Amino acid sequence: MFERTKNIKLSTIKEIELKAAQYPDAISLAQGIPDFDTPEFIKRRVERALKRGVVAKYSLSPGLPELRELIEESLAKDKMYYDWEKEVLVTAGSIEGITATIMAITNPGDEVIIPEPTYTSYREVINLAACKPIFVPLDEERGWGFNIEEYKKAITKNTKAIFYCNPNNPTGTIYSKEQLMELADLAKKNKLFLISDEVYKDFIYDQKSFFSLAQIPELRDRVIRIFSFSKAFAMTGWRIGYLHSDEKNIKEITKIHDSLVTCAPVISQYAAMGALEIEQEKVLEFCQKYKQRRDLICLRLEKLKHVFQFVTPDSAYYIFPKISLKLAKKIEKEKNINLTKEGGVDSWKFALWLLEETQVATVPGVAFGPNGEGHIRMSFGRKEEDINQAFDRLENLFNFQL
Amino acid sequence: MRVILKTLLKNYLKIITKMVLFVHRPTVIAIAGSTNKNFVKQEIKKILREFNFSTRVNPKNFNTEIGLPLAILYLPSGYNEYQKWLPVIFKAPLKLFQKKFPKFLVLSLGTSDEGDMKYLLSIVKPDISIITDITQRYKEGFSDMNRLVNEYELLAQKTKKGGLIILNSDNYRVKEIGKNKEQRVLYYGFKEESDARIEKTEKNEKGQKIILRHQGEKREEQIYRFGKHHSYVLAIGHIIKKELKNNAEIR
């Protein structure tokens, strides 16, 4: 019984959220949800669709043609050229796109390489497909960048794909063009797919440049790029995203997509059309706000230097500080609790202890892969007041009580 | 109240736009159809700029009763905020005195309900009309397919006498529209009888190689886009280029 699900875990983020819900004054820096509401323009687009009575029926399995055409136009602005009729698939959020992709391109027993720390659900989807996630550590010393030698070591005859998140969740790293091209060379040489999850590509700070391998036409049959409307347009609840690749890949992925969901929710497809018709101003406004919040959280973390070391994120709305082992040991001694294991900080125990002491919810770094151990993820998708209040509590704990 | 204000605004913008078009007399290229309007629009804009013609195109969702006049007048939408409409209302008549009004307007016309096209054509009278495609898309606003097709039929009829109608020969509903017209009609597509005939498309790593035959000339072009619809864009672009070279009336 339950052979398929026995290796699949519920997301640690949700688990922490459930625990945080037991504290009436909890402030959650755990879940990666934008605190903004979906822009009015998008809501009006949906209202119009509802009034016209066009949302009650299935759409074509790959999505509404008018939405896919808008997606092609939007991609072209970013120098990615794909045929909306055959090479774009609208999905029920990015996770459905990821699931359909992994199921389509792998066979049971295949290996998928994941640079980590990275988004928690990748591992579960790979397990679900009866494949094996192979973790390759990102290099914290290089700002959580790739080390290509690690990939070379990880490739075996069973490797089918390299699956990365760019910009990366939870580190906020943007991989450079050079790093990605090295990865592409490796993929070409070993005939691997490259799955690029780019849901945070609209939140990039300090004029940093962003490059996607989907911009290289010669790689279009190897790269499967995934995008979601959730983050860029504050639409997490609408569950709508898309993916694109060469038609021969999309044809196969569509078969899985069709059997999983038939089509993405049609009402959300109209919302996505609204999002693509909207002026980019709203997205820029969100990005500006997140930058302010990133600067704030970095400033507040600076005041806790003896507790956390961090790399300033260039993108997304997460920061991934390393917990001081020295401090963890001191707390263990003073409070007679256990916060370490095998000579390092146990991030799960630390996050639970922090929640209990301050009612501030964070995600233990180990949830993002073994290399994330000893860290916690904090989201600055929350309002500035929440960030300040959470850090007031942390400062009170670490600067005055310990 | 909101409905009354919207009607007033709609009529105000229509009157001003008609006056502006009367004063400046730009050449109007109208693009309609279920798909591909925006790519065609961008291609024509590119061609007109190559010929050094000043050109204005409407943004993709500015193709309806209020959006179209705003695009012609080059004014932003106030959307649902009353105070944002005030400067728009004030600036609209000033466009009558604009010194360098564009020589060409390239406008996509949207129709999602019966009568939409009639309204838009009460504002603009195209010199060239292009119909890209007619599919089931937007059919929900019409009681049957014939009524949707009638919207496009009306566009063809209302194209200026001596003007040009460009039609997709691969879509039989679009092709039918070309019958019995006073205006010149040119067809594009894969079908043998097309004036601008796409003989072959070949997908490659960079995009597509397209072989196009038009007015006795055979051309082979590499484009950096994927999908059949871009070969249509290329064919329409060739027709427009030829017209600009050979037909002084539209220049």
List the helices and strands and how they pair.
The complex is a heterodimer of chains A (402) and B (251).
Chain A: H1 12-20, E1 27-28, H2 40-52, H3 65-77, E2 88-91, H4 93-105, E3 111-116, H5 121-128, E4 132-137, H6 148-154, E5 159-165, H7 177-190, E6 193-197, E7 223-228, H8 229-232, E8 241-244, H9 247-261, H10 266-277, H11 281-302, E9 308-309, E10 318-319, E11 322-323, H12 325-335, E12 340-341, E13 344-345, H13 347-358, E14 360-361, E15 363-364, E16 376-379, H14 384-401
Parallel strand pairs in A: 1-14, 3-4, 3-5, 5-6, 6-7
Antiparallel strand pairs in A: 2-8, 7-8, 9-11, 10-16, 12-13, 15-16
Chain B: H1 2-24, E1 27-32, H2 37-50, E2 55-57, H3 67-73, H4 82-91, E3 104-108, H5 116-121, E4 128-131, H6 145-158, E5 164-168, H7 172-177, E6 184-189, E7 196-204, E8 207-214, E9 217-223, H8 228-246
Parallel strand pairs in B: 1-3, 1-4, 2-3, 4-5, 5-6, 6-7
Antiparallel strand pairs in B: 7-8, 8-9
- Topology as H/E string of chain B? HEHEHHEHEHEHEEEEH
Q: What's the mean pLDDT score of chain A? A: 94
Termini separation of chain B: 45 Å
Range of strand content of chain A: 5-15%
Strand content of chain B: 15-25%
Oligomer state equals heterodimer
> Total number of helical segments of chain A?
14
Q: Point out poorly predicted stretches of chain A.
A: none
From the helix content, strand content and strand pairing of chain B, which structural class follows? alpha/beta
Task: Using the alpha-carbon principal axes, give the shape of chain B.
Answer: globular
Low confidence ranges of chain B: none
Q: Name the strands of the widest sheet of chain B in spatial order.
A: 2-3-1-4-5-6-7-8-9
Distance between the termini of chain A: 49 Å
Helix content of chain A: 40-55%
Envelope shape of chain A: globular
**Mean pLDDT rating of chain B:** 93
